[in-house]
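Weekly sync, protein design subgroup
Attendees: M.S., D.O., the rotation student, P.L. (late)

Item 1: inverse folding check
M.S. brought a backbone from last month's batch and wanted to see whether the design step gives back something sensible before we order anything. D.O. pointed out we never logged the input encoding, so this time it goes straight into the notes. Structure tokens as presented (210 positions):
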């Protein structure tokens, strides 16, 4: 039996996933979480094989949770489920240690296959993403500006693009305002942008926020 935690802040989405997974006798949803900290607490206290993790939840971000999960001695496989396109987030979360990445638009059959694969120790990527990765390895792929950012810089960039103030970001990430200001400066320099308005425009154009 594959023991699963669903970590997503949308109740209806969690309920839909539970119904899909209930059709398969080898899959069991043993816990649900609506925010990052709740997910992390459950991961530390509940025997699990797979975590279905939304990359964007209240509290701890998906990337932060992923880092914390992988720091545990015996951690479950993490399959990231996201509304964002694969070409924007998949490589980043796979590099961070996720066992797979799937968009929420994926068919139920693909989700079941992905869960079984990561539960058995494999890595899941869709055929389309696999093709993109192979193409990137074969060519001198020019990275987009946001792909040059570190995970923390990328996180701060998205929060700035969503209109959050430096103080709000500092509180959310448990960092000082000075540190966030430094990250903001690095983001602007690496992406060659001139302010928060341009960050927002860039993020919308590349579908990094909705």
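Designed sequence read out in the meeting:
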């Amino acid at each position: 039996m594959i023991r699963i935690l669903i970590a997503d802040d949308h109740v209806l989405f969690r309920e839909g996933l539970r119904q899909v997974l209930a059709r398969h006798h080898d899959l069991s949803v043993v816990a649900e979480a609506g925010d990052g900290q709740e997910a992390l607490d459950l991961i530390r206290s509940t025997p699990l094989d797979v975590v279905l993790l939304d990359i964007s939840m209240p509290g701890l971000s998906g990337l932060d949770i992923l880092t914390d999960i992988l720091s545990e001695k015996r951690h479950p496989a993490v399959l990231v489920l996201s509304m964002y396109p694969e070409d924007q987030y998949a490589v980043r979360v796979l590099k961070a240690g996720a066992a797979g990445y799937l968009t929420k638009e994926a068919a139920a059959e693909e989700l079941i296959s992905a869960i079984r694969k990561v539960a058995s120790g494999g890595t899941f990527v869709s055929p389309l993403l696999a093709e993109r990765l192979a193409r990137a390895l074969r060519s001198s792929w020019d990275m987009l500006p946001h792909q040059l950012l570190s995970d923390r810089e990328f996180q701060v960039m998205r929060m700035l693009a969503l209109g959050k103030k430096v103080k709000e970001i500092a509180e959310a990430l448990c960092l000082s305002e000075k540190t966030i200001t430094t990250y903001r400066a690095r983001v602007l320099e690496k992406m060659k942008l001139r302010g928060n308005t341009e960050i927002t425009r860039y993020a919308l154009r590349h579908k990094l926020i909705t």
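Discussion: The chain has a mean pLDDT of 89. Residues 145-205 form a domain with the Arc Repressor Mutant, subunit A fold (CATH 1.10.10.10).
Action: P.L. to compare against the previous round before Friday.
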